[in-house]
Structure formats: structure tokens, C-alpha cells
Amino acid sequence: MKTKYIIGICLLVIITGAGIGLKMFFKPHADISKINTDFKVEASNLIDEFQKNENTATTKYSEKVLEISGKLVNKNKLENGTEVLVLEDEMQGISCQLDSTWAKSNSTDIQKLETGQPIKMKGICKGYLMEIKVSPAIVIK
Amino acid sequence: MKQLLFVLILLGVSVGAFSQGKYISKNAYISFYSSTPMEDILGESNEAVTILNGETGEIAFQALMTTFHFKRALMEEHFNENYMESTKFPKAKFTGKIEGFTKEMLKNPAVEVKVTGTLSIHGVDKTIALPIKLGMENGKLIGTTKFKVTPEDYGITIPSLVRDKIAKQMEVTVKAEYQPYKS
Fold this sequence. Notes:
The complex is a heterodimer of chains A (about 140) and B (about 180). Chain A has helices spanning about 1-25, 45-50, 55-60, 100-105, 105-110; strands at about 40, 65-75, 85, 95-100, 120-130, 130-140. With about 140 residues, chain A is α/β, with parallel strands linked by helices.
């Protein structure tokens, strides 16, 4: 009776352990549309912060979810099909690579976007390389 | 007089626009690939930035570690937190110079050139020589390279428990489409 009980517990532990392990292993990538925003910022202010002190801004924003309002200045498509939206300044602005799944289901809306128009993006800030890199990102307005 | 001034300003602006023959790629591709019988791991980024000086043949390349994207979210987490320590060392960098550089190299069809320079990963600098294919392809100035990197050379320790799953050497692939730099 006692051994049965022990075996039962062992099995339970193993199964839960394996379950947790598998869940971690197959953990999906974050769904941008569902995760909480950490910071709501104006594009120009964000650029100022990075240009004034890259290290401080990187510590503050890297891997954080941002909602950025700004002006769309460039729209292009990379060789692998990734859509890139650039905010504020073509060379030293904010470069947002759109989430590929989101971009696929919203392609008509993306096509309608025109350079010069105000735009609001949500995405994960990756840091600063001449421009601020945000990916993956989605358009929210 | 005013018109002359205007013309002069315009001239100044247009000269500045091609700031001394520099070329840039803001969305350069970089990947690293580790292959073992146990598991294949591919990390890719389309967000590397590289500048090529068309006067001197100097190349600068930088990539943010956090922009590498993997098939599984867990791989990305391990890559950034356990191996690259991306918060401490957010960027991988390469600066180098093309050997025997001539300006014609940027106009002719792509050929292999040798670039010697410093590769900095995980806060460790190493002098390396890279074979880079550089030149015109379908009307675009393209630079590509493929080389091997040993994690241990850059102070990246891989626990023995997972050593079998990660290749001794990673294959790094880079592709950049350069455009004239406008500033």
C-alpha cells in the first residue's frame, strides 16, 4: 500500500515536472497586441533621451514594451518580406519592424499608411544603433 | 545677392547630402547558426547597422544582441541572459579595413576581398581577417560574408550539460545592401 502511494507521488512529480519543462520549452513569442505597455512616449522625446545619454536610455527602455506616437517618415519592405516603418527621422529616428503575423493579417491597413501622417506604434524597444530599434511592433493608430 | 546666397546654400546642402562617399545599411542581415546532431539553432537579426567608407575602404558594423530572433522564445532568453549577457554587453561590433582597397571595388561586380579588423563580442576584442564578397549585384552595392566564431574565444562559457546541443563553432552570415549615406 505504502509503496503504491510513493510510486504515485513520484509519477505525479515527474509528470508535472515534464509538463512545466515542456511548457517552458515551447513557450511562444510574446504577442505584442496582448502584453502590457511599460511606457507611453512621444517619438521626439524618446530620440532626445537616447541621443543625450544612450546608456541610461538603454537601461530604461531595452526589452520594454513602448507605445510611441510620432510621424511616419519612411515605409519599406526588406528582402525577407519584413515591413519596416520609420518614425520622425529617416536616418536617426525610430525604426519599427512589424510583427510578421500581425503584418500578414493587417496588410491592407499597412498599405494605406502614408508617409507624413501621424502614427502610434506599440513594440519592444531593442536599443540604439544610430536609430532606435523597435521590434516586433504593431500599428495601433 | 540673395539669389546667390540661396544657390550657395543649396550647393552646400547637396554636397553635404553625400557626406564624403559613405555608404550605409540600416537593416543589414546577420545570423548565427549552430548545428549538432542533437539540435540546430538559428538566430537571425535584420537590424544590424553598417557603414562603409567609400574613400578609405573602412567598414564598421554593429548589431544589438537583443534583436536576434530564434524559433523558440526560450532560446532567445538563454541567448540573451545566459550566454551573451545582453544587458551588460548589448552590442557586437566589427571595425575593419579592406586590404588593397580601390574605389572601383564599389562599382565592379562582386569579388572576394580580405578585411582585417577587430571583432568585439561579449566585451572581448579579437583581431580577425574576414573574407567579404563586395561589389555590385543587380544594381545594388552588396557586401556578404560567412565566417566561424568559437564562443569560448569571447569568454562565453557553455555549461557541460548543454555542451552537446551547441556547436563548438558558430557559423555567422552577414548580408548588407549599402546605400549612399544621406545626412
